[in-house]
Amino acid sequence: MSEINNVVIVGSGPAGWTAAVYAARAGFAPLVLAGELEAGGALMTTTEVENFPGFPEGIMGPDLMAKMQEQAERFGARVEYEDATELELAGEVKTIRTAYGEYRARAVILALGSAHRRLGVPGEEEFAAKGVSYCATCDGFFFKDKEIVVVGGGDSAVTEALFLARFGSAVHVVHRRDELRASKVLAERLLAEEKVQMHWNSKVVELKGGDVLEAAVLEDTTTGERAELPVSGLFVAIGHDPRTAVLGGQVALDDAGHIRVEEPSTRTSIPGVFAAGDVVDRTYRQAITAAAAGCRAALDAQAYLAS
Q: Rounded to two decimals, what is the model's pTM?
């Protein structure tokens, strides 16, 4: 594969496909390495998306990704369903290797995304998108007047629990310690919320149900005693891991492992390499903010290539 591409986009979530749309419309015929098993990113495991502009009736996550891909390909983007396994990003021509070969490019856009940390308990995979969620903003509305569990004790978990209290009849916060790790202001706000019930020194060890989630099994971390908690929704908020292992330390990262960019641009520490989406964003992690960053990355790459 001796051809040198103008732009190779690694990743195919909202950031990757939006970057592809913009780069393709600019005439750069970008190549998208969409991934072999996880093409489409986190939205592929999301049910109905109701907060993405332009879809007043809502749209299923996989359908939204399919439309983005269709739009990018319409303008000339090319797609390979391969995972990047090794990258050489220094120099004017970059090399991206996969299990099937290698690709070269003058500019690379990293839209690698992030992975939700999972509980790793029986039933978690079975009830994904059937009661188990990793995004309260995305799915909270679907649990109106139902009992909900939030797992975690940091700022993210507390923020999600407070948000879900707007919808659920009760919110059970399960934390393996006897005090929250969240900031004092957030912790006080959570403990004052009348819909919230704390389960201290507890962890979820199993999820049960039929077609959808019906109960979470909690275990006391001090006594080992187990109890079944009937719930309709369970939100896991124990952190995210940006998918940066493949970079091999070539690109500067922040203290949480996200790629550093030269805000407000998407330039990384390596000329000709840009980053967008959840692999950069440690704050918002929404489809619309990822898409916006993908647009910026494509424009930055266009300016770099023009220079």
A: 0.75
